[in-house]
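User: Please predict the structure of the protein below. I'd like the answer in structure-token form so I can feed it into my own downstream comparison script.

Assistant: Understood. Taking the following sequence of 212 residues as input:
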Amino acid sequence: MKTTLRSHFSHPRHHVTNPQYKRQAMQFIRDQFREYGLETHVDVFPTRLPTVNGVNVIGILKGTNFNTPNDVIVGVAAHYDTMRNTPGVDDNGAAVVAMLQAAKQVASRPHRKSTVMFVAFDFEEWEQVTQVSNVACANLSCGSEHFVHTWVPNFWSSTPKVAGVMVMDTIMNFDEIKQSQKFPAPVQIMSKVGTFNFNIDISYESLRIANS
């Protein structure tokens, strides 16, 4: 995992500052999905710039209930793009590598009822048009928005049931020591009822269900 992180996700992956490295990262994710035996799709979508497209990479492990009323989707996702001048190891290379490892492990167990989907999002990062030039995405999560609102409806004839989705971000920035980290203000409200931990538990449980 360290080798993968250093080789493919340790430099800026941005359409302005390092477009070639970003494209290589996308291709690496695509090729890994294929190597693991996932049905792999590339979701190309337009941005604010006519010469720049975003690329989401989707890997699907179909269960025996795929495309039936009994199918339940479990998702694991992470974005692979970065800001202009950040190396993107923590944000968000570590999460991409973790997602790839999860895909490899789940794919090694061929018999499952539910469908598991792995998605590497492009253009999660955004920029303000008043501060920099050549802005491709001017709002948060352009790639995931396109995936949810355009790719998913085009792939499935009817909206599937979703058991849970684990979206990983900056997972190296973690400390188990009590009171060492704080939730952002909006999340503090949810944490009062245990939503944060509940979502994580549901996601792991969903992966277990998918492999049952």
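That's the full token string. Residues 188-212 have pLDDT under 50 and may be disordered.
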